[in-house]
Amino acid sequence: MAVPLVGSVVVALLPARLGGALTKQVAFGVSLLTLGIAAAVGAGYDVGGGFQYTEEHEWIAAFGAHYALGVDGIGLTLVLLTAILTPVVILASWDDGDAGRWGVNAFFAWMLALEGLAIGVFAATDVFLFYVLFEATLIPIYFLIGGFGGARRSYAAVKFLLYSLLGGLLMLASVIGLYVVSADSETGPTYLLSELSRMEMDQNVGRWLFLGFFIAFAIKAPMFPVHTWLPDAASEGTPGTSVLLVSILDKIGTFGMIRFCLGLFPEASQWATPVVVALAVVSVLYGALVAVGQDSIPRLIAYTSVSHFGFIVLGIFVMNTQGQTGSTLYMFNHGLSTAALFLVTGFLIRRRRSQLISDMGGVEKVAPVLAGVFLVAGLASLSLPGLSPFISEFLVLVGTFVYSWWVAVIATLGIVLAALYILVMYQRTMTGVPVPAVVGMKDLTRREISALAPLLVLIVALGFFPQPLTAIINPAVEDTLQQVGVSDPAPDVPVTAGPGEEEESH
Amino acid sequence: MPVVDPAAADGVFSLLWLVIALPALGAAVLLLGGRRTDAWGHLLGVATVAGSFVLSLVAFVGLLGRGADDRAFTQHLYTWIEAGGFRVEASLLYDPLSALFLLLITGVGALIHLYSVGYMAHDPRRRRFFAYLNLFVAAMLVLVLADDYVVLFLGWEGVGLASYLLIGFWQHKPSAAVAAKKAFVVNRVGDLGMALGIMLMFATFGSTAFAEVSRVATEATDGVLTALGLLLLLAACGKSAQVPLQSWLLDAMEGPTPVSALIHAATMVTAGVYLVVRSNFIYENAPVAQTAVVVVGAVTLLWGAVIGCAKDDIKKALAGSTMSQIGYMMLAAGLGVAGYAFAIFHLLTHGFFKANMFLGAGSVMHGMDDDVDMRHYGALQKAMPVTFLTFAMGYLAIIGFPGFSGFWSKDKIIEAGFEDNLVAGLAALLGAGITAFYMTRLMLMTFFGEKRWEKGVHPHESPKVMTVPLIVLAALSVLGGVMLLGDWIVGFLAPVVGEAEHHTPAVPPIVMTLVVVAVVAVGVATAWLLVGRREVPRTAPQRVSVFTRAARADLYGDAINEALFMRPGDRFVGDLVTFDNAGVDGAVNGTAAAFGGMSGRMRRWQNGFVRSYALSVLVGALVVLVAMLAVNLA
Amino acid sequence: MSETPFIVLSAILFTIGCVGVLTRRNAIVVFMCVELMLNASNLALITFARVHGNLDGQVAAFFVMVVAAAEVVVGLAIIMTIFRTRRSASVDDASLLKY
Q: EC number(s) in its UniProt entry (chain C) (predicted)?
């Protein structure tokens, strides 16, 4: 796991003086290699075996900090997502780095660095290491937005950085707090997740520390009301950057909630559940409603993500198997669908040289493949059954319903709004008579199609056959819930096992 | 009450998956193959559906060869979703109900595919049209073969998607694109009910499979069952264009005519009825929900009929009629065991005659250069004899002319309606009269009277590839009634929906039938008096009564939606965007600005004079000194 | 011999230097005043070394002298450069490094 992390950074920085084409090829090669390793890890993962591929070295003994890595089903899912998306993004952003402030090499170097750090974050099993990597991911993305974006990129980059740092500092306070708590316990100072989760903690202390972590993750995720950095960052960055940001980096927030908020502070998590659920539902509806009113495509997608992250957080905090499996799956599927959406609209925006929906119209006529891909990505985003996001969204809603029916009713309104914002966007950009500016627009090139194809294939395939993912996620979710100490409520009228019903052959 | 208890599929029934897979494969090949498949794409499209039809037929024959209690099979494909106690199996369920639907969908579907070969011959995107049609058939088959509500939901949304794509097929027309979007969004409102219903089902029973839910449905509380019934009804309203979610269907006529025939008349819009009938184990235990179904059905059947009376657009008149006829089915389905079989019966006959009439309307439009305004038609019976004759068969069927298929099915529903309660019966009876009126008006305006053609229009009969499906459907419209021979359909469906005990009705059926025929005759006569005897003006008269105006405006359904949801919604969204930019983001930027201002003031201290820096160093040193002294002395 | 006079002398020298730094404009004079302050502190260091009877203070004083020497080298070079470019040795003229 550490090999691609180090390898990607080093290899990307080496050819810094060479020509652009070579850099691109090397970067693509490295990302593919990483994907290969990640796939091998996934294939070798023993379903239901808890944390695997662990690695542990003492780092700073005085703090009890370790360099400790390992993945469980949840982490593995996200590592796979990262490994899949990076080559796609590199392929899709082939020419996006040319016009930047620091040249092609820096662009791809930062991308690979980001991939390595993100994988590290998802695999960290030591709070201190997690914190360091968590903050370190800000550096590449800051340069990616600030160096290779649109007109107001500096504003967006600084806004993003300050938001994230604020959250990061709150988390740092909690990390220090954890040190103090653990130093008092009989194990001595430690940051290892495995030891911290066994530790007794005072109720109030736990709640405060939980808050520090939670706010940091909520900013990262992003949830209402700390979401406003995302639309700016997404509309100013290149499409590739937006994908990395929304599809991978933001997942750290929700991943962190599962791994650290729930894992370390089970009591506090349950204490905070009502508030968090309320915020999540507000995010769902608020993001969707504001998305309906946007004219800029990237901003619209960014707001849809706010809505989707609301669903993810909702699923995490309703504290049952359906919700959390749904959430983890959602993280993966949202990564795919939003990546496809960002990339295809990125291609569109690059051709039209405008982000505004009102500047487009009738694209379907001139670029049918682009329109088709756009539609599929959009439908995935609105969770059409048969595409992978449906399963996750539905699971989250089922979990929510089990938690409280009226919360589910409100959250389900989100699916109507989703249809509205996606289809209104599709209708205004793609249908009708082509406006003069899009006449003569070229359809997707072979490179662009090959970048998008894997995403679409995965979206459809996992829509009908999510079994590979759910199989690795389910045990991990059960572990988490066990740690929190809750179990699924039984149905009111359980289906009594009928003759030969339950033992269906596989 | 019957429990769904299927046996594992074997023999021909193990080929069930292929019924779905064929059209799905067709859609995939046509969509992914791109322009390479342009040349033969339409043929493949027809072939896959025809193949499915053959399979369905084989399976149906196989089913008939079995005993009545041995007619349900399930084919387990794989486990679709699994999370904790939530488990959805991708399984297919084949029982008498599915069997009939299978035949309807693939049979009528194949005919409409064939027809489309001719109808879309000049469209450069014909291949894509067939891809979408195939996709639709596959999704619809998933819907009726599902043995779990979540799988049903998959088909449910799949047909919604296909409907969206096909309504907006001519998407260079903004009105088509808007109509497509409207259809999808309104359907999503219905899906809300479906999704919540499934969730409630899981929360209550811990399962969403038909077999398991039907076994324990009686054990749930009344409140839960009523809620389930109402939620599923909401879903059915969305898909079947029932009041209050009816508004999309009329706009959906923007799609190509074969689409209107297949999706918005024969199959997809009847999915709501299917859902209610399929969920009979829930409705039987939730009388309140059943009453709601009856009310919705009764209201819609009148609503649609009234709209149908005022439309000059031939397709919209037919769409109003579709709404109305589905209202009949809903009403029947809401009557419980007494009505389920008749709902399905009417659904099948309606599938025949309405598809027939839509295709006929398409044929007329084909000859009239895509003009849809009936005021520009007239005297077409000479120019298009085949179309006229087949259309006439459909017409006689829908108004319930004795002996035609619609007569049997509608008569049964009215009868059952009167047995249940007077209001439902009267609504159904009145609806029959209005149906006779608007259909006669449509016939008269289109095929009789004077020529009112636009200049340069030369109506001509459509090619064979289009008329042959018309003839087949016309034959079915005439003969569809045979399914009622000896109450065959009632007995056939009994294992799925149960059978009402036989009792003698208060009014003898023959009297009832006579009354219905009399009401229909009145409707026809009224139309003849109002339309047939006079000259039809080429433009719609403006000085008309309030009622006509209301009916032309679809009884203000759109206006209500707009005033109640869209305009306030727009305003709310606008406010929210402002709030997000000014409020939430403003607070953030405000904080940043406050810090910026503060540092702007503080940097004045850096005046560049070495001496002032030195002074501040001195002051600082003194402060430290004093502080240390204070601490040490204290 | 009492250490008081030495301390007093040191304080007086420091004050003179301090006032000089704050009030004079000529960079050379300011510089000389800084040296004066350094030497005042040297005197104090040595006095206390004597009082305590160890060499710590003297060692510190040597360090201060070394630092002062280095400072003279760098400081005079800067003043020379400023004078060359701006034809002035007044510290108030060199106030470019401000907000």
A: 7.1.1.-
Residue C93 located in a structural domain: no
Q: CA-CA distance, A176 to A208, in Å (whole number)?
A: 12
As a whole number of angstroms, the distance between CA C32 and CA C16 comes to 11
Distances (CA, A) of A347 to A50, A104, A235, B32, B420: 41, 19, 14, 20, 61
> Are 3 or more Cβ–Cβ pairs between C and B shorter than 8 Å?
yes
Q: Do B444 and B534 touch, CB atoms closer than 8 A?
A: no
Structural domain including C21 reads: 4-86
In a domain, C97, yes or no: no
Contact yes or no for B158/B139 (Cβ under 8 A): yes
- Is A385:B153 a contact under the CB 8 Å cutoff? yes
Model confidence pLDDT, tens digit, residues A238-250? 888 888 888 888 8
CB-based contact (8 Å) between A423 and chain B? yes
Any idea what the CATH number is for the domain that residue C52 is in?
1.10.287.3510
Of the listed ranges A229-233, A325-329, B31-35, the least confidently predicted one is: B31-35
Q: What is the mean pLDDT of residues A186-197?
A: 73
How far is residue A102 CA from its own chain's centroid? Answer: 27
**C22/B618 touch (CB, cutoff 8 Å), yes or no:** yes
Sheet holding B7-8, edge to edge: B7-8, B73-83, B86-94
Smallest Cβ–Cβ distance between A427 and the set B177, B577, B580 belongs to B177
Domain-located, residue C32: yes
DSSP secondary structure letter of residue A67: E
Per-residue model confidence as pLDDT tens digits over A8-17: 555 555 555 5
Min Cα–Cα distance to chain B from C53, Å: 25
Structure tokens at C77: 């070079």
Is C82 domain-assigned? yes
pLDDT for the residue numbered A19: 54
Range A143-154 average pLDDT: 80
- State the Cα torsion B107-B113-B114-B115 to the nearest 10°: 110
Question: What's the CA gap between A360 and A220, in Å, rounded?
Answer: 32
Provide the number of structural domains found in chain C: 1
> Does residue B92 sit in helix, strand or coil?
strand
Q: Which of A169, A109, A113 is nearest to A137 (CA)?
A: A113
Q: Which candidate, B325, B474, B458, B493, places its Cα nearest to that of B404? A: B474
Concatenated DSSP letters for B257-309? HHHHHIIIIISGGGHHHHHHHHTHHHHTT-HHHHHHHHHHHHHHHHHHHHHHH
Residues in chain A closer than 8 A to B178 (CB atoms)? 427
Cβ-Cβ contacts under 8 Å, C23 against chain B:
611
Q: What confidence tier does B481 reach under pLDDT thresholds 50, 70, 90?
A: confident
